[in-house]
Amino acid sequence: MANIQYFDSTKRDNKTFDINKASVIALRSIGKGYSAARKLFALLNLSPPIHQRHWSAHTERLEQESLVLLKETTDRACEELLCARDKTNDIINVPTSFDGSWGSRGWASATGCMAAIAEKTGKLLDVTMLCNQCNECELWKEKRQSSTIDSLDFLDWSVKHFPHCMMNHEGSAQVNKISSKFSFGY
Length: 186
Fold this sequence. Notes:
By secondary structure, the chain is an alpha+beta fold. It has helices spanning 18-29, 34-43, 52-83, 135-145, 151-161; strands spanning 12-13, 16-17, 96-102, 111-118, 124-131.
């Protein structure tokens, strides 16, 4: 029988209640946010969830911890491959499987992810987020087209924005058309 752990709604850790962290983790795990939490709690006849500001803080902390865990996991998988390599050759031949998914069904999704998995070990080597839209880019293109700004201002903004732009995919979300930037740590 599975060992089920229940959260004590009165237990605090660093000034936060465990039940609040658990509700954020649970709803984020199924792709839902604060609005869904409010609806769920109302349907269950529970008091409303924590304030949205605190919900966002928990979400940010969860994201940071997840990124640390992802880096540790992928680094460990890459180190394992490096240790098992043929030491006589500088080139490492790693058969890799790639898989991707988009945020919503159909070909209209703006965000997705792509993962590289080592075929020999079945371990995750790298993951990257795909995005085919950037609100800031669209805003500045509109400004440029409407002649609100001149070419020099647009070029200056572009040079500063490019390293931080989230858009790394062009075209639709069709599987055959993925052409994202993909880089490995090793």
